[in-house]
Amino acid sequence: MTATFSCLRCGRCCFVDFTAYAVSEDFNRWSTENRQDILNVIEKRHLVWAGDRMASTETGVHPYECPFLSNTGKECFCSIYETRPLICRKYQPGSSELCPQWKFEEQ
Ligand code: SF4
Ligand code: SF4
Q: Of all protein residues, whose CA lies closest to atom 4 belonging to ligand 1?
């Protein structure tokens, strides 16, 4: 028997900065949509791999979460949901070990 997955909106799946994996299709869409706000944030962060994690070439800071992750105080949400990167659209809730409902199937 399989339990019904219910997203807790905890935001943990966005504690990885998926924007670092944005592809040309995403960048082209943001340009077409005139979303310079998004492009500016990503450009400013200049993320590169530094050993086993990412770091900003500007500040040396290791990002802890996606810059577009927001919360209402009670639950998290994506502030660019309507045009989020393809990798985020493909993500299946519950499919990552980051998710508290990973392997939620009843045994
Ligand atoms: S763009 Fe939105 S869905 Fe994707 S990681 Fe950031 S907050 Fe999460
Ligand atoms: S980690 Fe899982 S429960 Fe939390 S917001 Fe993401 S999909 Fe929902």
A: 88
- Contact assessment for residue 22 and residue 36, using Cβ atoms and an 8 Å cutoff: no
| Run of H or E including 54 | strand 53-56
Q: Global pTM?
A: 0.82
What tokens appear for 7 in the block?
């997203």
**Centroid of ligand 2 to alpha carbon of 76 (angstroms):** 9
Q: Please, are residues 73 and 65 in contact by the beta-carbon 8 Å criterion?
A: no
> 3-state DSSP call for residue 71?
strand
What mean pLDDT comes out for the span 38-53?
Answer: 80
Q: Where are the domains of the chain?
A: 14-90
